[in-house]
Design goal:
alpha+beta
Amino acid sequence: MCATGLTEAEVDGWRRAAKLMHVPRHEELGIVLQDERFLERKPWDFDATPIEKYPLLLHHHPLELYRHQVIKQTDVVLATYLVGHHFSEEEKRRTFDYYDPLTTGDSTLSACIQSVVASEVGYPEAALEYFVHACAVDLADVHGNTADGIHIASCGGTWLALVAGFGGLREDEGDVCFHPRLPDEWDRLRFRVQVRGQLVEVDMTHQATTYRLVEGTGLMVHHFDEPLRLAPGVPATGAQPDELPRAA
């Protein structure tokens, strides 16, 4: 048993559950499905829904909502980020394209993830717009309840939009990978992230990204497909590709 009380039996149970899980897909549309019958439901009439009727869940019974193609917060799109290695780049883009118009934004946990995935699939304008929305949750009190306390998970998601979205941080079978995508309107983005007990500073510009090991003995990272070895006092720089993937 580990310090958290986790037992081998619990780990085995989760592994068995994972093997039994099924991820429904629609081959023709090339998307991951919210559930197997999601496409059989009629779309929600957003055009006929006045702004004062949002959040929808406060004005419509759940059984009514569940009979339509409408989503409170990013679910499947979040999955394409968290376990992205299970999905192709085209599948991620198509999934984002399909569900983004159906997502109401009622949840403060949506905009940050939409920003992360928009960056990855080649929608830089949408990525920046969703990032601004994520910042506004408490700064502009868009939900009218910041007086009760800030939205901590949304704050974490805003940081994630910077690091995993614009910074492109991913973990791929143990490799630490960055795919920097600095917004056109910005000149620079710099952040620090701790990797396996070592502190790495990432300094992004439109021309290149420099990686510095602030604390630690040595670490390998990947800048796009280029491996860079970081050592104390020795910055490593990766050039920005001439053109990043950009969806039409």
